[in-house]
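Hey, can you fold this?
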Amino acid sequence: MIFKHSNKDLLLVLICFSNITLLVFGALFFNELSVIQNILAGVALVAFYCTNYQCVSHNFIHNNFFKSGILNKVFSIINSMAMGLPQTLYYHHHMNHHRHTNGEKDISSLFTHSKNDKEEGILSYSFIGFFRIDLLALAKKTKKSADKQLLVMEILGVLSFWLVLVAISWKFFVFFYLPVWYLGQVAALMENYFEHYGAAPGDRKTDSVSCYSRLYNILWFNNGYHQEHHYAPTVHWTKIEDVTNKLPNIDDRVVVNTAHFMNNPLKRS
């Protein structure tokens, strides 16, 4: 058994490799596919990006998948290629979020660019949010020599993968990859918005939003147990359901049906 916590993490690894595979095939057949087919492929890849951030990369941050440190580093590089962004930078961004969930020091807070102590609008938060992230500041948080080396390898991995895609089809890279990659960032930020909208920061038991839809949690690896995750972030996703009984009653915190996207300003207005 090469997996540290659960063999089910293989599913998350496969999503990462599927993401990369789809991009390579997309580049190879970009000129042969119709506009509609490319649009459908783009929608699928946006979903892959969002799933990577919310499930693959996210769970890897809190619980490295492998027993072997070398395998974890290799996966970190490969997943950086899949995300189009170094895993280490996302690690620092995400850990900041956990330390200051939706508070003043949370760089992904819904309130940072808002007015009147209300959440920022979902569109500006999602579509502008990526450009507000100071990637250099995140890189400077990498202090250990080994972590710096890993970050360099991740950056080289991303750049190398981009060069491969450009070599296959520069038109694919410019007209497909970059727009889809950006929309993937938008989708991930939008999901983060849904996971915290309406929940007041300051209490680890009520500062996030949970969703207990069975289908949603099967498809998204128990991502619906988000309040549980913020209360006990090191609990593996296969066991996170056990944390629910440590939280207040669902009437005393924000819980939504179906999926997190049901928790948005239009639905709650």
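Oh, and this one too while you're at it.
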Amino acid sequence: MRRLAAVEEKEGVRILLAIESGSRAWGFASPNSDFDVRFIYARPEDWYLSVDLEDKRDVIEYPIVDDIDLNGWDVRKALQLFWRSNPAVIEWIQSPIQYIENGHFKTGIQALLNSIYTLEKGIYHYRSMAKTNYRGYLMAEMVPLKKYFYVLRPLLATRWIETYRTAPPIEFAALLHLLPKEEGLLEEIHRLLERKKLALEKELAPRIDKLNAFIESELARLENFSVEKEEKPAGMQDLNHLFQRILREI
């Protein structure tokens, strides 16, 4: 909290939402995992009434200090990305670990989530994340245990989108009921979770063939899977109204 208060004072901004992202929010942090703190901020209204607005920097970034990775996005940038179903913004507003909430940003943007979210983009994002992490880290004899979760979570997120046709929650535990009822699969994942809680970030272990088999079958299933394109019932005007309301609160 002190670091976030210092950001507000140094940068002349108001933090609207600050949350934990990454493995701590997902529910599978290691003992030495960084704290991935992300925030959305707003500046005084006059800052946005500028001829050169598009040339102004709309992110705040700091180097990692004391295992805290701290950076944030301007609210206008965040709303623009939200309109495009940007997965980072959508996960941030659903984080179970929250440090700061000011004004109506969070409640306003969450109210628009179901009408803005594009299922097709969600499927594509999570499928690509799973494929990249699997091929990059889990095909050797010795693998980093944490990478299983960087594959399993997005695979189950795609199942959530298929099943419920909404943005998936970010907590891994909330997705586990979507696993197929294959003997021993859930038990293997629970054992892996317990090992992960005690393992260091870069620790290697023998690959888990049962999980690899599930991952490969799921990636193959998703290769040609698609959802129909849908019209967004909410319009950009809804985001403009939210943006204007936020600026009046600064």
